[in-house]
Amino acid sequence: MEGKYLYRLELNDLEPEEFVVSNGTPCDHYYEVLDALTINPVAVQTILSYMKEKFADERNSSGKLDFEHSYLRRQINELASIEYGKDGLSIFDVTLLLKVSTPSAEFDKTVGKGIMREILTLIYEYAQTMVLEADLDRIYGKFVLEQFEMFDKNIDWYMDNWKDNFSDYINDLMRIAVSDIERKKLTDIYEKMRKIMKESSKKRG
Length: 205
Hints:
The protein is mainly alpha-helical. About 60% of the residues lie in helices and about 0% in strands. A two-stranded antiparallel sheet has the order 1-2. A hairpin with a 7-residue loop joins strand 1 and strand 2 (about 15-20). Helix 4 (about 90-100) packs antiparallel against helix 7 (about 165-185), helix 5 packs parallel to helix 7 (about 165-185) and helix 6 runs antiparallel to helix 7.
C-alpha cells in the first residue's frame, strides 16, 4: 500500500493542490494529512474560507433548509476511505482511522480525542444555524446516535484487519459522544448509546 494513494486538496472551483508533509515528501498516508495541514496554514485558510462560503450560500438560498438535507450532512453521508477500501464511514471512523494509520510510537490519543470533540462541536454549531432552538438538541442527538450505531457496526472491520489493541481508544471516542449527549439531557438517546457502548466493550473483551 506504500505510495499507492496521494492525498491532495481538491475544491470545486480551485486548482488541485498536492499535499506535502513536513519532511518534504508527498502525503500518501491518512495520518499524514494532519501533518500536511499543520505546516500549510494557507491550505487550512483556503478550506475554511471555501466552507464558510458554501454554508453562507446554503443559508441564503431560496430553498427549504433543514439539517437532514444540508450540505454538511450530505458530505458526511458519503464518508469513505479509498486508501483502506472502506465506505459507510461515520464521524467516529475519522478519528479511529487516524489511530490505525499512525505508527504506534507516533500516535497521541489526546490529539484524536480532541479532533473527535471538535467534530461534534462543529456539527452542533452548524445545525444551530438552521434548526429552531427548541428542536436543536433532539435533532443533533438523533444524528449522533445514528453515527454511533454506524461506528459500532464498523468496529468488527477494524478488529478483523488490525492486530493492534485499540479497544481502549474506541471506548474513549464513544465516551466523548455519550457524555455530550448526557450533558444535553437527552436521556432516551443517552441510554441507547450507553447500552451500545457497554455491549461493544463486552464483545471486544
